[in-house]
Amino acid sequence: MKEIRSVKALHIITGLGVGGAEQQLRLLLRHMPMQCDVLTLTNPGPVAEGLRADGVRVVHLGMRGNRDLGALPRLVKFIRRGRYDLVHTHLYRACVYGRLAARLAGTAATVATEHSLGEGEIEGRPLSGGVRRLYLASERLGAATVAVSDTVAARLEAWGVPAARVHVVPNGIEAVRFRFDEGVRRATRARTGLPERAFVVGGVGRLVPGKRFDVLVRAVAALPGAHLLLAGDGPERAGLRRLAAELGAQSRIHLLGERDPLGDSADGRTPGIPALLAAMDVFVSPSREEAFGLAVVEALAAGLPVLHVTCPAIDDLPAAQAPGARRIGTGTEELVAALRGHMEAGARRLPPPPVVRRYDIARSARQLLDVYDLALSAAPGAAGAARGRPAADPVPGAGGAAVVGARREPVGPGPAEPTGTG
């Protein structure tokens, strides 16, 4: 088998807007020892810019929608010209198109990660029989499927994916970024207009119905003097703002928009997720369905007590792994009562629990490399051929694909498209 450091890998993802799967890809690539390029089917958004800053080559295929079948031959041509040893796909649309394109291009080692599979939805969209059948048909074209949690692995197996093909590689974080700092707390509160001694509740995520941030807005509105910091964007933002106004709490509900999970903006003026977590007193994840719950792990790394409805990253483990996390029901009244208890007890910071070490991104990267080894070993002919061929020249683009960024010499992004994650 080819030595892993000399492997050339292509990551195919549906889009590169701000999202958990997208940010996880960026973090993982920082710990990959081989050359990795990224191709996004749609939306070369903020994460594409971050990848370029990290020195990763990013290509935008310019796919127009789920049924843009003309994207398939362009994708096949790109993979073939790049002479990749391994293709790794992320998110539903990229998995369906990417696995088929890799097979047609002759790339024998194909891995897919299932980032966001719930009981009744996938990536925030309702599941249907057709979606499941298409997923299973394309899954057979790959060498391995990665699940981000035991919960997702069980769902895949219940769908009919053979257990031997499913490998759990949990999401990970760079815990040092979230280490609590009292000075950062004071500065962030001042920059966001929060009273120094206010009780601050926090939430992070896409503003979509499935995240149920309306419940969080109602709960904080019911606690006079409490403030809510909510980082994220999405179609529910205007509705949440209206709800806060209807409840007379608009001055205490702070909808911050998208924020960088890795740190403050380049000019230092806009606090990123680590700084916002430092400014909070308690973190809430009200979502009914999660595939992992990365934001909860980040909050625990920041020393925050956490209230969550569901979080496989925590729920799949013994309680001693995350003593600061408490599972609650879906009702608003229960959340209000839990928050009132924290408010009355006063702000307190907790030591990062053992679960934070478990979900270290470097550890996840090592586990993923083990999956790559298995996939490459299952394709000895392809690996052997790769071993003896000359290194491919940089591909300037293929069949209409626009180069968004290049290793060492990044260029500006191509035309933006609506974000697509399905």
From TrEMBL:
Annotated Glycosyl transferase family domain ranges read 185-311
The answer to whether the entry has keyword RNA-binding is no
Q: Which GO terms describe its molecular function?
A: glycosyltransferase activity
Q: Where is this region: Disordered?
A: 385-422
Q: Where is the composition biased (Low complexity)?
A: 385-396
Annotated Glycosyltransferase subfamily 4-like N-terminal domain ranges read 18-174
- Keyword hit for Signal: no
The protein's UniProt keywords, in alphabetical order, are: Glycosyltransferase, Transferase
> PANTHER family in the record, alphabetically?
GLYCOSYL TRANSFERASE GROUP 1, GLYCOSYLTRANSFERASE
Name it: D-inositol 3-phosphate glycosyltransferase
Q: Which organism is it from?
A: Streptomyces virginiae (Streptomyces cinnamonensis)
